[in-house]
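Problem 12. The chain below contains 77 residues. Write out its predicted structure in token notation.
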Amino acid sequence: DGIVPKKKLSYKLQRELDSIPAKIDDLETELNALHEQVSQVNFYQQSLEKTESVLAQITHVQEQLDAVLERWAELDS
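Solution.
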């Protein structure tokens, strides 16, 4: 049989795994809101500081989302 049973997670790791979908949802919501700001017609007409701040937030949130998705894959395998 090529089927390998999943190892049982500790209580702490199971709780972490259970919390991941909500974290993903929150990060995706935040990312969508930031992308909505960028899509506004006048986004690049505001101050460079504000523009760079929003773009940096997008990068940061995307990195967080990638890390959470990676952790989910680790715990779920």
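Discussion. The chain has two helices and no strands. Students who got a different answer should revisit the alignment rule from Section 12.3.
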